[in-house]
């Protein structure tokens, strides 16, 4: 009996300590990331701009001559414009006008509590950004979750898309069924564990090792970890990341891919452990006017792992007049 009381006491003490830790976390975390206090550490901040869309401020970076063809770059889940920091200037040097957007809820864009945080809603923001910037049509390049957003723009606002580039793109809901995201999306539990996961640089490094091919783990530098971590280290970012997972709904991409009739380049890392190559092969099978390029020794983010090769492949595709979209 005495052992039972001791065990119960230990469990109670542990629960109390855990409750205290959670309370401390919620009370001490910052509400938002202040741009003015971090701008000097943001890659290419001199190219950063802010625009109001539907009452929210959207951050984007702009490179190159506005009179040249526009590439609109869309990042993945929990990412930001940082994933394009190497290739964006290279595209500009190749005579493209480059816009890299921070989706609402990510990077240095606003993270409003009332936003829907669905793929459809993000696609609408991209389309309205084009309106605000006076861009009639663009070549959309979407990475991972951003690939689902780019695909949705092509499906819902097809006349705004010249060509489509899908990079290790999300095409269904499989990716959110992994153990971490599955638990994070549970009501109550998600609110507790998300701040600890997103604020943990150890967790981020582990995720980066899964994201990058083993031969590219040298890219996991303190600068990279800090750049990914910085815009996620706030209460509103924790909320938007969680809301995006709970409103994922990406099955439509796989189901409706056959309706995409834009010239489409599909780029995939052969060693992608986040979204397997079979998803890229599925897209290639469904999208009639598409080509698939598989990069060896490359994981989930070819634009970071093979930037020069990525720019060359995408540039050649963008300049190819064959089979251009009639939308």
Tags for this model:
15% strand, 44% helix, 8-stranded mixed sheet, 327 residues, alpha/beta, 14 helices
Structure description:
By secondary structure, this protein is of the alpha/beta class. The chain has helices at residues 2-28, 35-38, 87-93, 119-133, 145-156, 179-184, 189-198, 201-211, 222-229, 235-246, 251-256, 277-286, 302-305, 307-319; strands spanning 48-53, 56-63, 70-74, 97-101, 138-143, 161-167, 264-269, 290-295. It is globular, with a radius of gyration of 21 Å. The protein has 14 helices and eight strands. The longest helix has 27 residues, at 2-28. An eight-stranded mixed sheet has the order 1-2-4-3-5-6-7-8, sandwiched between helices. Helix 4 packs across helix 5 (145-156). The model is unreliable at 7-19 and 21-26 (pLDDT under 50). A hairpin with a 2-residue loop joins strand 1 (48-53) and strand 2 (56-63). It starts with a helix and ends in an 8-residue tail after the last helix.
Report how far apart the termini are. Answer: 77 Å
Strand content: 5-15%
Number of separate strands: 8
Q: Return the structural class.
A: alpha/beta
Report strand order across the widest sheet.
1-2-4-3-5-6-7-8
Tally of contiguous helical segments = 14
Mean pLDDT over the residues: 90
Shape: globular
Instruction: Give the low-pLDDT segments.
Output: 7-19, 21-26
Note the main sheet.
8 strands, mixed
Radius of gyration computed on alpha carbons: 21 Å
User: Helix fraction?
Assistant: 40-55%
Order of helices and strands: HHEEEHEHEHEHHHHHHEHEHH
């Amino acid at each position: 009996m005495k052992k039972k009381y001791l065990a119960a006491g230990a469990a109670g003490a542990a629960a109390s300590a855990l409750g205290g830790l959670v309370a401390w976390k919620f009370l001490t975390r910052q509400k938002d990331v202040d741009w003015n206090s971090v701008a000097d550490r943001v890659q290419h901040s001199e190219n950063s701009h802010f625009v109001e869309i539907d009452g929210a401020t959207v951050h984007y970076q702009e490179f190159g001559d506005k009179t040249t063809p526009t590439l609109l770059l869309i990042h993945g889940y929990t990412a930001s414009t940082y994933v394009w920091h190497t290739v964006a200037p290279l595209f500009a040097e190749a005579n493209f006008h480059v816009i890299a957007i921070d989706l609402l809820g990510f990077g240095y864009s606003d993270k409003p509590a009332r936003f829907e945080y669905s793929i459809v809603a993000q696609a609408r923001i991209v389309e309205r950004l084009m309106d605000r910037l006076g861009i009639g049509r663009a070549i959309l390049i979407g990475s991972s979750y951003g690939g689902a957003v780019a695909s949705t723009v092509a499906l819902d606002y097809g006349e705004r898309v010249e060509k489509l580039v899908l990079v290790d793109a999300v095409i269904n809901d499989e990716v959110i069924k992994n153990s971490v995201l599955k638990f994070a999306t549970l009501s109550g539990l998600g609110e507790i564990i998300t701040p600890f996961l997103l604020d943990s640089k150890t967790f981020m490094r582990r995720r980066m090792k899964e994201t990058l091919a083993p031969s590219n783990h040298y890219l996991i530098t303190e600068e990279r970890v800090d750049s990914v971590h910085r815009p996620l280290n706030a209460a509103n970012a924790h909320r938007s990341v969680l809301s995006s997972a709970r409103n994922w709904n990406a099955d439509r991409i796989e189901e409706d891919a056959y309706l995409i009739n834009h010239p489409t380049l599909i780029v995939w890392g052969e060693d992608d452990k986040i979204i397997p190559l079979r998803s890229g092969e599925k897209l290639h099978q469904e999208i009639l006017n598409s080509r698939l390029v598989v990069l060896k020794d490359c994981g989930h983010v070819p634009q970071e792992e093979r930037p020069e090769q990525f720019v060359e492949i995408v540039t050649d595709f963008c300049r190819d007049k064959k089979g251009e979209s009639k939308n």
